[in-house]
Amino acid sequence: MDRHHTFDFVEGTRPAPMAPEIRHFYPASDEYFSYHNYTMEDMNKALNDLQTYIDEEGPFDGAIGFSQGAGLIATYLLRWSYERPGDPLPFKCAIFFSGGSPIDPMALGAGTLQWMKTSDSQISLPTAHMWGAKDHLHEDAERLFAICDDRKRTIYLHSQGHEIPSPKAKEDVQGCVRVIRRTIEKAELEV
Question: What pTM did the predictor assign?
Answer without folding.
Answer: 0.91
